[in-house]
């Protein structure tokens, strides 16, 4: 009772001194609140950011060792490399489906990509039209590029663009068409505002395709037309496909990697991407494979001409999980179902890109944590010094207490209570002020972190002389394309290559709210600071003898 | 009735030996004692031993038969003896009432707020100080007024023994008389044992028993 009463009395009496202590603790409280709020928000975002989000993952081959292909003649090395890659077991669609039949998997989708030729080896589709090109009429453009597409009563157009490949991609379901899901690509609208067809139906081999607006424009094709494409291994095999929709690409960056690649390789030109359902694709792919095998056999280099893993594998399979826990269970369940985990790995590019998006926030979190510890350490030091002066200044008072019979423990406790009460009041005010300031300060600091990260990317681009794209960028995009590992090559021109140039979408705002946990943590921190700063009080009081203090004064 | 007893007390400082030697004294309730002697003779040291502010080198200080070495000295000071220091040892920023209340709280005495106020008023009456002084910080008071507050503080929890070190040393003669009257009344009317350390012959002559110390020994 004496402790509380006398502490309260002293706080009121020495108001100026206690306000000074309060201001220091208040500053500690504000800084700590902001630091803890940022740290807490970052942790919450990390822990819960994917909690209610569907996660996609794919199985990919673990890259093979190329040691065996490192010596010998070019021919020998090529063969060794081919055997090395070909020696890897390739998962079939049935294999992928088998691993999907486990409890953790909520759904799947898949796609496959191959390349086909036009019927003649002349023209190509340009990725972008220059002003000079635009000044020329269509006929002259087509003449320069190998001839006008021939029309047959307006219903059949035979493409005369056979000098290069088309990338043909088949999708199992609308979910698999991630670029259409996220709006990177969409069915285009004509001048009258009407949609130019629609995406093909799924589930049956219907020979329906959608083509890019550039390709359609170049060949004067429209919805309802049929086109004929040619097997690249055997030009006697052709495929007649019906255009049911024309799509456009939202991205128009003509300087990205895919466009540059497209100038050299037509199949890599985004405008040459043709989409269909997986059943149609599967039929085409099977004949491409057969022709490829036959061509290889004829050349006597079986396994060498069939080197391209994209051609061999053909399918890119994606597993969908309801939550992160299910994703984490999948590896074990797939292994139980027969997946050879020494040869194959399971990767979620959602997680990779999510983690990449948190980079500035994590940097901010690290900064906040360091700031917190520095502030607390400074707090302890400053309060200890103030306390030391305080005790020295109040030595006589301590002597009086001891002289009238207050024991040392009570005197020390009274001083601690005084500091604790002042500190708690200051901390609570600090929490309030910190809570008010946290969101804006946190977002301002985060903005600077993002600016730094962006500047680093810009510097790297400058160093390379072009946008190489950070590693995480390519991973970032694969969520929809399941394009990691060897099957990444099957992402197609409209897939990985185009998406790879997309910038990371950093988490650019954080809800640095103060919750009860932070308040409790700060109260605990204040108590700890007071305890540490009070150690000097306790040691001083324990050393003091009333007679000596009072005699000195006398 | 003997309340305090010194048995074969000796005391030495680390730098000064035999400050007190072979002291044997009995103090009874209802009497007022004076301890006189030259400066450095050991008077204040003796009072400090009686107050439990210091410990003997040899011998025992007994309070109601209990050795102070074996009881809680802080509790003893807080409840059983009232010490009036030469320099008052009040907290100057605290009011008279607060100084008294602090001592009351330290003794562990629990009384209601109105009772406390009444007790403070009564104590101010006892030490002949107007009640309005209760709310005045003692730092604003004269030496005589502070001495009265120091006496009031020493009396507030009703100790059996009052120890006063030069209580009139800083006071004028009128105030000195007034203070001595208070002590006499406490001893004779309220059955307290009052022990006064003083240089003053006048003060000593008022007391029931006079103890003279010289070179650490009792000479009369």
Give the gist of this structure.
The complex is a heterodimer of chains A (554) and B (220). By secondary structure, chain A is of the alpha+beta class.
Write the layout of secondary structure elements.
The complex is a heterodimer of chains A (554) and B (220).
Chain A: H1 2-13, H2 15-48, E1 55-61, H3 74-86, H4 93-100, E2 105-117, H5 131-135, H6 138-144, E3 150-152, E4 156-158, E5 165-171, H7 178-181, E6 185-187, E7 208-212, H8 213-219, E8 226-230, E9 238-249, H9 257-264, E10 273-277, H10 278-299, H11 309-313, E11 316-321, H12 324-336, E12 344-347, H13 349-357, H14 359-393, H15 395-403, H16 408-464, H17 471-477, H18 493-500, H19 516-543, H20 546-553
Parallel strand pairs in A: 5-10, 7-9
Antiparallel strand pairs in A: 1-11, 1-12, 2-5, 2-11, 3-4, 6-9, 7-10, 8-9
Helix pairs in contact in A: 1-16, 2-14, 2-16, 2-19, 9-18, 13-17, 14-16, 14-19, 15-20, 16-19, 17-18
Chain B: E1 2-11, E2 20-28, E3 32-37, H1 43-51, E4 58-63, E5 66-67, H2 73-80, E6 81-84, H3 96-107, H4 113-126, H5 143-155, E7 161-165, H6 173-188, E8 193-197, H7 201-206, E9 209-214, E10 217-218
Parallel strand pairs in B: 3-8, 3-9, 6-7, 7-8
Antiparallel strand pairs in B: 1-2, 1-4, 4-5, 9-10
Helix pairs in contact in B: 2-3, 3-5, 4-5
Give keywords.
heterodimer; A: alpha+beta; ten-stranded mixed β-sheet; two-stranded antiparallel ribbon; 20 helices; 12 strands; B: 220 residues; alpha/beta; six-stranded mixed β-sheet
